[in-house]
Amino acid sequence: MKTGLFQPLALAIGLRYAGSRRSNRFVSFISLFSTFGIAIGVAALIVVISVMNGFEGQLKGRILGVIPQVIVTDAHSRLAPDPQLVERLAALPHVQAVAPMLATEGMLQSPGQLTGVAVQGIDPAHWPSDDLLHRQMLVGDLAGLQAGAYRIVLGQGIARNLGVGVGDQVRLMLTEGSRYTPFGRIPAQRLFTVSGIFGVGADVDNQIALVHLADAQRLLRLPAAQVGGLRLWLDDAFAVDDVVSQPLPKGLVWQDWRRERGELFQAVAMEKRMMGLMLVLIIAVATFNILSALVMVVSDKESEVAILRTMGMTESAVVRIFMVLGASSGVIGAIAGAAVGLLLTYGINPMLNAIGLNLYMAAGGSGLPVIVSPLQVVVILLGAVLLSFSATLYPAARAARVRPAQALRYE
Fold it and tell me: How confident is residue 302, by pLDDT bands cut at 50, 70 and 90?
């Protein structure tokens, strides 16, 4: 009579072998070592993947929350927005908001410093109220950008490099709007008053400056109806493929964050995969230890297997006994490793703080970013169990081939 995958007798004998002391202490050591190896591999894999998820999520939130995620424009990066087009784009999946914008590059000059910036012309009236920049304003507010007031909002890195603060004036020069004079070609330039400073804790703090859309249009000598494009905010920046696959009217094109930042996130994803692969190899080595230990157990238990065979036990039942014996090490190691890994993951910042090694917090951060994915934990657990289970197949098949007459010849 069978209940489930294993016969009760095979399960009972396999678990008895797993919990009993073996006469060969070396075999016991190898078995225990393999269990610890799987536990260490699973724990390390959970910790590393969770921290890498945290870094990826932090980059996604900080960088992709500031730079345009998706832009609709034409081949010359100029567009006269049609209200029907705006409504159509706002109805696309994952799109949360649509607003006109104008992007260009220029130079900012203070009394003693000069630095290059990426200038974004925005209209605060159309800017989403829950946008990251609203939450990350250190001084001032985006509402301070008013048409004709010639005010500018800087990243904290730019403000620090220029040595300016709110109320100070900086000169913005744009080569795109340059004009010819008797003295040669002169870039479009204007004095702007710093009205706000933002800081998201990423490299965009050293790159981006915001001005009102109308002020940017005047500097670039563009008509009021013409902008650089329509900026789209998505509920998930990684869902960009679902958006850019939608058809657009003739002459319009999609531009997304991957053009400027794609390589950065590809590098993070590649690093996460490579570190995961190295840690999986630790688990694989531990499973080979299970195989070698189980082969020695089979040799040690040949006489007992022969007695069970003479009592009528089938080859398939013998296979299941040793599969239970070998897989038990993997299951115990995987569960113990998952428990330790989760404890370390959630306690990694307090632990690093206690020993004074949390360099990320010392640099002004809030600690190592951690994002635990339940699906990834389950996949790691199942992968470790399946690897340990596969390591039992050969020794179990070898045990089933034991011939009672030969094994008991000298007993």
Answer: low
